[in-house]
Structures are given as C-alpha cells and as structure tokens.
Amino acid sequence: MRNTNKGAAHIMPPQDISLCMIVKDEAEHLDKCLRSVRDWVSEIIIGDTGSSDQTRSIAMKHGARVIDLEWNNHFAEARNRVLDMATCSWILVLDADEEADGWDSDALHKLLVHEDNIAGFFIPVISYYGTLSEDSFFSDYVCRLFRNHPSIRFRGPIHENIAESILELTDHPIPYAPFPIKHYGYLHSEIDRKNKHSRNLGLIQASLQADPLNVQLRYALGAEYYQSGRYEESLQHLLPVLEQDPESGMISDVYLKAAYALHMTGQHELADVITEQGIKKYPGFTDLLEFKGILLTQKEDYDQAYRWMLLASIQGTAQPMYSTTSGCGTYRTSWLSGRLSEKMLHAERALLHYQHALFLKNDYMPAWTDALHCSLLLGKSHPLPDWIIPSRTSMLPKQLDLLIPAALNTGNGEWLEFIAKSSSLPEQRQLWIMLMRRYASEPGKRLYSELVASSAGPTDTNDPFWLSYRWSAAWKSQDLDDADHEAERLQLIHSPLASIHAYLTGRDKELPSEKDCSNALQLLLQSQAYPQVLQLLAGLFKQSSVPSLPVSVIAGLLNAPVQILQVGCLNWVQSFFNEKQRVPVLEEILLFASLAERCSSSACLNAAAQWLDSYSTNPYALAAKAVCLTEDVRLQHVIPIQSSVRLPLLLRAATMRI
Questions:
Q1: How is 202-223 classified by DSSP, letter by letter?
Q2: CB atoms within 10 A of CB 193
Q3: Residue 46 φ then ψ, to 5°
Q4: Strand 137-147 relative to strand 120-130, pairing
Q5: 457-514 pLDDT tens trace
C-alpha cells in the first residue's frame, strides 16, 4: 500500500523507497520501528511468518501491506519473497527490533537522486547489547539500502547477505552512507525472549552440513558461539576461517574475536600472536590497537600498554569497513589511558585523560567515577577540578550517588552545599544533607537529636534511611543506650546494621560480611563516630580475605582528625605484638602508611616499611617503602625533603584492576 501520510512541514517527505520487512510476534517493537520511517517511505511491505500477537494489526495501522509467508528456516528466501512485492526504485530493509536514527531528509534525497551508478549503500547498524545502555554497543556497516532490481537478492539461510549480488551486478565497490540504524536485538531480554542463540545455532549447523566448506557459515557459527560466551567452541571455527579465507571482508572481525576468545580461555601468548598478525594486516583497525594495549596491561607492561592506547586514540573511531565497539578510539580509550596513567603513578596525567573522555561523552560514568576518586586521593593541595562538578549544570542521579558519600565522608562543605541545592534530591534528603553538614562535626548528641526530631513523622519513624543515620549518630555521641535503642528498631526491619551493632558491642564475635561492614563504615565516618570506625576497620583486616574499601571510605579516613589517626596508627602497630603470626596484606600496609603520613606517625611509618619487605617483588611495595623511609627521615631529623609520590595514590594504583 502506498503511504499517503502527509506530515507537518518539518517531516521528511516520502521518498521513492519501499520498506521491506519479515516479522513474527513483534508487537512489542514494531510500532516504534515503523514510526521511525513511515513518513518518508512510499510503501511498507511486511511478510508475516506466523504471528500470534498484535503484529498484523500494528502493521496495518501504519498503512502496511501484510503478506503471509511460510517459514522454511531460510531468512534469505523469506526476505526475497517480500522484495518481489516492492514497487519503488529503492528498497530499505529493517527488522522490527530496529529503528532509523535521525536520518537527514535532504541528504537522503540527494543520495538517491544523484548516484545513478550506485546500486546500494552500506549503512551503520548500531547494536546495543547486555542491558539497555547507550554505553554498550557495537557497530557494523551493513547493506540495507539498495536499488529495486531483480538481480539484487539476499543469499544465505541466516545472517543473509545482499552485498554479494550487488557486487556481481555492478562490479563497483559499495559506498558507505551516514544513515544509522539502532538495533536492540542483542539485548539480554530479546535474546532470551526469542531464544536467539539456540535458533541461530540450529540454522547454521544445518546449513553447514549441506555446505561444510562455506566460510561465511563457519564464521557465522564461530561468531554465534562467541556472542554467547562459549569461547572454546568459537575458536574451533574462527581460527580455521583465518587459514581458509584470509582475504575475506569479515577477516578483520575474525582476528579481533579470535584474539579475544584466546585471551578469555587463557591462551595469552597465542592471543598476542593473532593480535599482532591482525594489526599488521589492518593497521587502521582501532579495536585491535586498543586490544593490544589491554593484552600488555595483563602482562603489567603499563608503559607499552599506554603507548598502544595513544595509538588507538590517534586512530580515532574505526573506519566504516571495520566492526567496532562503543567508545573505542574515543572516550573509552581515553578512560583506559587514564587508568594506565594511574597505574604508572601519573595522577595529573590521568585526570587529563578522564577530562578528555568526558569531553567526548559527558555522561560516561567510568571516566567520571575515576576522575572523582583520583582527585579525592590527591589531597587538599589539589582542589577538585571544576569539570568534575560543574557549578552551573545539574548532575545525573548516579553521579550524586557517588558524590554524596564522598562529600559526607570527607566533610567537604562546598560539595555538600552544591548537593543540597540539587533539584534531583528529594526534600527530605536535602534536609538530611543540611543536618549532616551543620552538626556532624559538633561534639556530643546534637546530630543525633536533630536527626531524631527531623524523622519524627509517621512515614519517617521506621524509614531504614533515617534509622541508619540515627544509629550512627548515636555512636558518635558514644551513648550506648541510644545506639541500642536504634539497633533494636533496625533489628525489626531486618537491617544488616543490627549485626554490625552486635559486633561493635562485643555481643557477637563474628564479623558481618565485607559489604555490610563497608556500608557501616560509610555511615560511621559520615557521623564522625571514629572509635567505631577504627574498631570495624581493625576487624576487617583481621580477616583472611582482602577487604576492598571504597575510595570514599579511604578519603574519609584521610580527612579524619590527626589525633584520631594517631590512635589508629598506634593501635595498628601494637596489634602485631598480640598477633605475631599475622602478616598484613599489602593493601592494609599501604592504607596505614597513608594514614601515618597524614598524621606524622613515625612508629607506623617504620612498621609499614618493615612489613613492605614481605612484598619485595611488588613495584608498588618498593615505591611505598621508599616513601615511608623518606617521610620518616623528614620527621625524625626535620630535613626539608618530600617524596613526589603520594601513598594514597600508591594504594589506589596497587589495587586498581584494568
């Protein structure tokens, strides 16, 4: 049916294009797909292979011609039957879980009218994967827009291809056109709903039995195993493809997938060999350049890894002939360069990379998170850059979720004032921020009293949020009766803090989970209940596992009063006289060395330097020992020397995983 929908003046006028689709049970997506194109295609033809939902009625609502197709487990056959019905000069092919994204009317018209010698175009298909996130996608250029010609037809039972028939007809390369399609078919929800992996594997394996030497099918099978995380099985097909058809157009992608699969199966040396071969053959393939840097990172060759990341950044977004993943060559590579810089103890350089990543994608949370954490550990001599917390723009909720504990733990009044004015923070949370900012640093019961008064309403009395802060504020005032009272109420709502309370009071000798301890540390730090902070911290490090303290907790400890840190450092040193068999883990030594540097505890610096000898092969331990000895000499002899390396940054670098 011809599309007679006349939209407003700004809507793209209908072009001489037939939209051709095949569908089955796509009621969830079809309306959105057709809305993205209905105003500028002249006809919509949909082949239905047996829908039992509202797919047909949705298609007809948009003026589509719907034809019934018998499904014979052959995608090309089904698509070609729909192409046979097209009457326009050009054909666009979409799937129901796709949509045209911001196509330019004038550019499309010029493309179709003036390119007489062109029979088709590769256009970018951006496929989102995992859970729906703009940060997770890969893109390929696929021939979806082509002339209506009887010789131009799809081939292949699955992952059907039309480019081969166009090349045979014209003997000209197929050009690329900047008209993106968003594809949602690789989201977990869609893969599970349609049982895609099982369906695809069955079709490909059946086709390979009939045509066992077909390289495209062998590649498709390897890619299917790869996408489902079955890397061993994917290699059984991807590696032979490299040997069988080294000149095929999909070989660049085979190199990348094979190298990654080898890496994921522990075959690191072979992964490096395949990566090197791929880069030699495709020196402009940004994703391979970045992956080379990742492989070197696993070998802890951070300097060379950083150089490869720079090469990937210089190359930029991959050229259209390559399949690429989100942010490669741009914001993601800049972020990885920042993390490598931190591993090499170049914090200021790392911040420049994080800033560049956020310039390229201002809501890229990995870069923003690392920028915040790196800045926190640089200390008060390095104020937080204004590009991390821009004063005139609102923050994303997930940014506030990270900034709030950092601001409360460190008692940063400027940040707390900024947070309190945030429009995305509910009124009751704004009140809470105001109370914490005003009373957390006051001695005595004032904070607890104000929190109790502010949460006296019927909806707040048993609110887990207010109860948690009242409990920590009671500990701040060192009033055990109040703390017990709040703990009883926490017990009634089955809060993990009840177990933390039992441990702090000595009623339970077993330390709760690391996650629960970490949450309690945040609360106690924010209320400045420092004796309980030190007690909980000591208990965490007595466990055999290595606790992973959030950076906001470490920053909060570093901002605690000097006299509190001196007590903590002294307790740490003395604990080894009582537990002679315990060898502290490296992260523990680096943390207390950082606290000792902050409070000028010579005894703790000395103890840390001695314990660091237990990790003599670790470069971060060696650097930390040098800093400890330098700082101790400065304290003992009042010599004006200072290390350029900060111990908190050493702690972060030693524990950071890339």
A1: HHHHHHHHH-TT-HHHHHHHHH
A2: 11
A3: -125, 125
A4: antiparallel
A5: 766 667 899 999 999 999 999 999 999 999 999 999 999 999 999 999 999 999 999 9
In the chain, the N- to C-terminal Cα span, in Å, equals 54
- Angle (CA) 342-343-347 rounded to 5° is 20
Cβ(594)–Cβ(651) below 8 Å = yes
Fold of 1-191: Spore Coat Polysaccharide Biosynthesis Protein SpsA; Chain A (3.90.550)
Between residues 76 and 417, the one the model is more confident about: 76
Percent of the chain topping pLDDT 90: 70
Quick one: pLDDT at residue 382?
Answer: 67
CB within 8 Å of 269: residues ≥ 6 apart: none
Count CB-CB contacts under 10 A for residue 169. 16
DSSP state of 614: G
Angle at 153 between CA 162 and CA 62, to 5 degrees: 90
Q: Apex CA 642: angle with CA 636 and CA 648, to 5°?
A: 100
CA atoms within 13 A on the CB side of 171: 0
How far apart CA 100 and CA 82 sit, in angstroms, is 20
Whether residue 241 contacts residue 313, with contact meaning beta carbons closer than 8 Å, is answered with no
Identify the burial level of 146 via C-beta atoms within 10 angstroms of its C-beta, where 0-12 means exposed, 13-18 middle and 19 or more buried: buried
Q: Count the alpha carbons within 13 Å of 640 in the hemisphere toward its beta carbon.
A: 0
Q: Which two tokens stand for residue 170?
A: 């014209």
Partners of residue 325 on adjacent β-strands = 138
CB-based contacts of 540, cutoff 8 Å, min separation 6: 511, 514, 517, 547, 549
Residue identified by tokens 């942010």 is 327
Cα distance between residue 240 and residue 236, in whole Å: 7
Instruction: List, for residues 337-393, the tens digit of each pLDDT value.
Output: 999 999 999 999 999 999 999 999 999 999 999 999 999 998 765 677 778 876 656
Q: How many angstroms separate the CA atoms of 633 and 561, rounded?
A: 23
Instruction: Count CB-CB contacts under 10 A for residue 142.
Output: 17
Distance from C-alpha of 559 to C-alpha of 145, rounded to nearest angstrom = 60
> What are the distances in angstroms from CA 174 to CA 181, 249, 250?
18, 12, 15
pTM: 0.89
Asked if 128 and 187 touch (Cβ cutoff 8 Å), the reply is yes
The residue among 477, 428, 410 whose CA lies nearest residue 448 is 477
Distance between CA atoms of 185 and 142, rounded to whole angstroms? 15
Question: Does the CA dihedral 369-370-376-380 come out positive or negative?
Answer: negative
pLDDT of residue 422: 79
